[in-house]
Structure formats: structure tokens, C-alpha cells
Write a structure and sequence with these properties.
Strand content: 25-35%
CATH class of the largest domain: Mainly Beta
Radius of gyration: 25 Å
Number of strands: 23
CATH architecture of the largest domain: Distorted Sandwich
GO molecular function, one term: histone methyltransferase activity
Distance between the termini: 21 Å
Mean pLDDT: 85
Oligomer: single chain
Bound molecules: the ligand N=C(N)NCC[C@H]1O[C@@H](n2cnc3c(N)ncnc32)[C@H](O)[C@@H]1O
InterPro entries: Arg_MeTrfase (IPR025799), Methyltransf_25 (IPR041698), PRMT_dom (IPR055135), SAM-dependent_MTases_sf (IPR029063), SH3-like_dom_sf (IPR036028), SH3_domain (IPR001452)
GO biological process, one term: methylation
Number of domains: 3
Organism: Mola mola
Enzyme class: transferase
CATH topology of the largest domain: Hnrnp arginine n-methyltransferase1
Number of helices: 9
Low-confidence stretches: 9-38, 45-53
């Protein structure tokens, strides 16, 4: 995307490479450039080791490669790349906001699955893993002679269940990272080489010898969509699924509920009111910024903390969902069932696996408070200021999960709400997940 430099001439000099990137901005003609604003902005630059010199003048056309933060963009001028303050450049009006494809991001993403840490976490999650085993067991007869694709197989557990519990003709176990080599060993170790074929590569790029009857994948991330692995599932669905074939999960739903969170609020905010008999409340704005800006996903909300009946705010049909739909909007209307303090929204997801047989029973994997905890836990969105609510009040609004245009596996969650439909008692907050 092309941008033009607006006002100031900037000369960016890195006077020493070090873990924390520092630079000295000397403003050009514009006397209004406040060094304090620059210093403040510099302090929030992403940590870097080396940034080459980058000088540019009013009217220059910069090529912006990425927007890592709202204040600093990664741009190029005449072949030289460096950080520039976003405040001095303007985007060409007719520019399309095309997502920036950045191969480095996927290297980082797949690199995180090369070690056992995340695989151990997923395999240790009994609710998650038993749900997939239950699906394969329930459909073992229908799977006989079928062609299966396990997308993002990791250690291959789902493919091994297919070979252990059913008699598919073949399972293509697709894994992008080097864990695939170990997965091959596990297939051999368990005597399933005749059935399971491990393919290392991205599902979007690999070549299968045939189309498939079943596309199964465990693609869910925090708040359902984080990681956006679901995009790969949709691409594979459109490329490899036979007509009338099955995708597991078949559908997914994001659930939201307004909650009271006395413990968390006391721990992070009320604490500053009188620690050791002193008044530390001037630190509360800092605490709000530090502890309540990003969602918290290690939270295990209890049913008793829910102020209203949870409701599905977003539903995804995996047979019809399109990639363009992945900027998902949900509306909600909660009727408060018990008076209390509205501190936060809690979100979790549920996925369903339809049976391959007409009369067969579906399987559900619920990550909410009424089910066994999972490694996804639940996602807590803290309001900046708690609101007292009474039984019978209504909390209505919208939630939007918007994919990050630069960091493509991340997203922002926008929440907008009002109490009893009033225009005064309105709240809105954006939560980055995670960049
Ligand atoms: N949130 C999750 N369930 N993540 C599971 C991720 C597993 O799928 C693998 N994976 C994710 N996307 C892909 C893809 N497009 N192609 C192949 N493997 C993938 C990833 O390397 C890891 O082993």
C-alpha cells in the first residue's frame, strides 16, 4: 500500500543497536513537533535490534509494509526500510485495505507447534480429545471404506482414532510443521501404516491423490477464532471435499454472558484503595490499562457469577461459511436474572459434530462453565468500570470479532452495550487478541 509523507522532514538515526530500539528524531521545518511526543512515541516502539537510517521529506511516497502498532509503521523508501511515525503520513484515499501477507507470521505460528508443549496441552485436555474419539466411535460403521482428511493433525491423535476404531480406506493426516516426522513414527509404532498416510505441508498447498468423504480438524482457538486456522479448513473444504461429504466439526457457536467478577476486580482494582491503610487510588488508571485492556483467557467463570442466561451470539455453519464471513458480528440481548455488579462479559464456544448416519446422535464439545474445563478455558472481557444492575434490567448490544489486517492470526473483539436501552448508560470497548 502506498502512502505519502505529509508534513515533517524526518531524519531517523539509530545511534546504537541494542535490545530496545532507540532513535533520535530531529524534526524538520515544523517547530510544532514536540520532542516529548516523539520521546513518548519512541518509548512505545516495538523492541528492535537494528533499524537502518531512514530519511524522507514532505511529499515522498512511502511503501508501508506493516502496521505493527497504531503509532509506528514499517515502511520503505527507495529500497530502505525503517519505522516511521504513522502521524506524519497519510494513506492514499483510493488504496484498498488489502491484508498484508507476511510469511514470517506463519513461520512463527507453525514454529510454535514444533515442540511438544502445545501438543501435550491439547492431548492432556480430555474433554477435547475424548469428544473427537466419541465422534469417530459413533460413526465407525459409516466410516468403513471412506477417505478421511485430518487437517492440522499434530501428533495424529484423530487419525489414529480413525484407524483404531473404524475401517476407513485411508486417512490423509496433514501437518504443516516438522512434527509430521514424529507423527509418521507414531503411525508406524501403532501399526496403522496401511491406513494412515502422513503428509507434511500446509493444507492449502498439499496435493491429495483424491477427494475426501470426511474432513476432520481440531482448529478452534481462544474465543473460537483466534489463530484463524478455520480459514485453512474452509480452503481445504472447498478444494478436497466430495459433494455431500462431512466436515467435523459441522458447526460452531460463540456464547457470551454478562458476569460478576468480584474476585478478579478486587485483586486487580479494589486492591489499590487502601493497601496497608494507604490510599493508592492514583494507580487505578494504570491498573485498568494494564489488567483490563486485553482479554483474560485463564478465567474459569462459575455459573453463580452469571448475571443472565448465556446466549449464542455467533453461529458458524462449516458447510456454508466463507472466508469473507470471518469478520463476524453478533447481537445480544440479556435479561438480568439477579441483581449484582456487571464487571465483565465472558465468552466461550461450543462445536457440534453431526452424525454420518441419518438417525445417529451428534456429539457436542462445550467449553463453557456447565462443562468440564478445557485448555481453552473461557475468555473474560473486563469493563473499564463496573455497573450495578438489577433483576429485570436488560443488557443489549453487539460483539464484532474483526481479524487483524496485519497480524492475520490475531483479531480485535469489539463490544458495545447499553443498559435498558438507554443512550446515557452505554459502553464500548475494543480488546486486542493479542497484538
Ligand atoms: N488451535 C488449534 N487446534 N491448533 C491446532 C494446530 C495444529 O494444526 C497445524 N496446522 C494449522 N494450520 C495448518 C495448515 N494450514 N496446514 C497444516 N497444518 C496446520 C499446526 O501446525 C498444529 O500442529
Amino acid at each position: 500500500m502506498i502512502h505519502i509523507v505529509l508534513r515533517w522532514d524526518f531524519h531517523v538515526v539509530v545511534f546504537q543497536p541494542q535490545p530496545h530500539f532507540q532513535s533520535l528524531f530531529k524534526s524538520g521545518q515544523n517547530p510544532s513537533s514536540s520532542s516529548s511526543r516523539n520521546d513518548d512515541a519512541i518509548s512505545r516502539l516495538p523492541a528492535l535490534f537494528y533499524v537502518p537510517q531512514l530519511s524522507f521529506s514532505s511529499g515522498d511516497m512511502l511503501l508501508v509494509h506493516a502496521k505493527p502498532t497504531s503509532e509506528w509503521w514499517w515502511a520503505e523508501l527507495h529500497g530502505v526500510i525503517g519505522y516511521v511515525p504513522a502521524s506524519v503520513i497519510r494513506q492514499e484515499p483510493d488504496e484498498e485495505e488489502e491484508p498484508v501477507e507476511d510469511p514470517w507470521q506463519d513461520e512463527e505460528y507453525f514454529g510454535s507447534y514444533k515442540t511438544l508443549k502445545l501438543h501435550l496441552e491439547m492431548l492432556s485436555d480430555k474433554s477435547r480429545t475424548e469428544a473427537y474419539r466419541h465422534v469417530i466411535f459413533n460413526n465407525s460403521a459409516a466410516l468403513r471404506g471412506k477417505v478421511v482428511m485430518d487437517l492440522g493433525c499434530g501428533t495424529g491423535i484423530i487419525s489414529l482414532f480413525c484407524a483404531q476404531l473404524a475401517q476407513p480406506s485411508v486417512v490423509y493426516a496433514v501437518e504443516a510443521c516438522s512434527m509430521a516426522a514424529y507423527t509418521r513414527q507414531l503411525v508406524k509404532q501403532n501399526g496403522f501404516e496401511e491406513v494412515v498416510t502422513v503428509l507434511q505441508g500446509r493444507a492449502e498447498e498439499i496435493q491429495l491423490p483424491e477427494k475426501v468423504d470426511v474432513l476432520v480438524s481440531e482448529w478452534m482457538g481462544s474465543c473460537l477464532l483466534f489463530e484463524f486456522m478455520v480459514e485453512s479448513v474452509l480452503l481445504a473444504r472447498d478444494r478436497w471435499l466430495k459433494e455431500g461429504a462431512v466436515t467435523w466439526p459441522s458447526s460452531a457457536a460463540l456464547t457470551l454472558v454478562p458476569c460478576q467478577a468480584d474476585g478478579y476486580y478486587a485483586e486487580k482494582m479494589a486492591f489499590w484503595e487502601h493497601p496497608y491503610g494507604l490510599d493508592f487510588t492514583p494507580l487505578q488508571p494504570l491498573a485498568r490499562q494494564e489488567f483490563f485492556t486485553k482479554p483474560r483467557f485463564s478465567h474459569l467463570v462459575e455459573p453463580a457469577e452469571c448475571l443472565a442466561a448465556p446466549c449464542h451470539v455467533i453461529r458458524l455453519d462449516m458447510y456454508t461459511l466463507q472466508i469473507r464471513d470471518l469478520e463476524v458480528l453478533g447481537r445480544f440481548l440479556f435479561c438480568v436474572e439477579r441483581s449484582g455488579i456487571f464487571h465483565e462479559f465472558t465468552a466461550w464456544f461450543t462445536v457440534h459434530f453431526n452424525s454420518m448416519e441419518a438417525e445417529g446422535s451428534a456429539v457436542e464439545l462445550d467449553t463453557g462453565p456447565s462443562a468440564e474445563p478445557t485448555h481453552w478455558k473461557r475468555t473474560l472481557f473486563m469493563l473499564d468500570r463496573p455497573v450495578s444492575v438489577c433483576a429485570g434490567d436488560s443488557i443489549s448490544g453487539t460483539i464484532v470479532l474483526r481479524r487483524n489486517p496485519v497480524w492475520r492470526r490475531h483479531m480485535n473483539v469489539f463490544l458495545h452495550w447499553s443498559i435498558n436501552g438507554s443512550t446515557e448508560d452505554v459502553g464500548t470497548k475494543t480488546f486486542p487478541m493479542w497484538r
